[in-house]
Amino acid sequence: MSKKNGFSIMPISSLFFSITFLAIGYGMVLTFIGVYLKKNGINDISIGIINACFFLGAILSSIFSQSIISKVGHIRSYTNFAALMVITFLIQYLFFNEVLWGILRFIAGFCYFSILIIIESWLNEKSTTDIRGKVLAIYEIIFYLSTALGQLFLTVDDLSSSIFILGSILVLVSIPSIALTKIKEPKLLPFERYSLPKIYDIVPLATTTSFIGGIFIGSFFTMAPVYVLEKYHSVDVVSYFMITVILGGLIAEWPIGIVSDKYGRRKIIAIVSFITAITSSLFLFIGQDTNLLYGCAFLLGLTIFSLYPLSLARANDVLNEDSDILEISRTLLFTYGLGSFVAPIIVGVLFKYYNDAMFIMYALIGLFLTFYSLSKKRVADDELSTFVNVPLSSGADIAHLDPRVEENN
Prior knowledge:
Blueprint: H1 13-39, H2 44-72, H3 74-94, H4 98-125, H5 132-152, H6 159-173, H7 175-179, H8 196-202, H9 204-232, H10 235-263, H11 265-282, H12 290-304, H13 307-318, H14 325-351, H15 357-374, H16 398-401, H17 403-407
Helix pairs in contact: 1-2, 1-5, 1-6, 1-9, 2-3, 2-4, 2-9, 2-14, 3-4, 3-6, 5-10, 8-9, 9-10, 9-13, 9-14, 9-15, 10-11, 10-12, 11-12, 11-13, 11-15, 13-14
């Protein structure tokens, strides 16, 4: 990939092309589900459960999909998982049933995160140690921008007949560049998970932060659109709200990384959590002013998307040379997935009692993480690892792309 220490994106351009269209379709449909269900009078608890099924599929994908990919191969696995995603979209377009939709969202979650594993393992195969950070940065930027672009499709007229079809087209467009690629298929190695209690004993702050980060992101993508639609009665406002938060997350990643490398993860996690708590409290007082809504949305994006990368950095700061960095990174991603799974259900229940309950929950969790972080031991400056940005949505093979794994092995 490199020539005379240069960097060329061309050898992996087919992967990034597929990621772009996949992320646009993913971001669009994931947000749309809650909006569509709300517009059709489904109660908030049911919306939360249906959305949680997507993340349950994601969790099981991280456990079972690697054996499928290893047996069938990357290209055939990608085309089959993508085809299954399209089938779930089209069945949702044709039939409206809450139980059926929950099953379909589960299948879509399994397929989507299995596809991410395929793409990430391919990126790792084509990335040498010295350029892995650049590849990961491009991967992240594409994910943020593509997911944000997907939100614009929410403003398309006749949503009920357009979004699922558009999502299907976008996923299908991602297939040819993968099906025709000449990139060597890497071997996926099986791995054993640490138990969560053991991981918590090793890296308690990292584990807690990754779980809470999952709560924020899981509830944001699935239930925040329901909140905004209920309050402002406009799908356009939902679209611009989601775009603003996502762009805030993209802008914040690099500055937060630089600051955390200088002052340490513990302190920055506390500051980010505290700002999340304050910003979440502001949502309770903005009334119907959409400009204030977008302002608060941008501030929220600056913080909640940074927690998972900060948890990975904290884990790398405190681990010793005998620790298995790769397995712990994967387990933190699993913990992040658990947070994403439980969040829509919790918020759906809370919405039954108070429409602003999600942001009260955000504020309380933010304050908890602030004080919890400050209660943990500070890591010496000379023992800090380097902060690495990761995409807002990742498969179980993302740990291989983290350049810190190579540095610790």
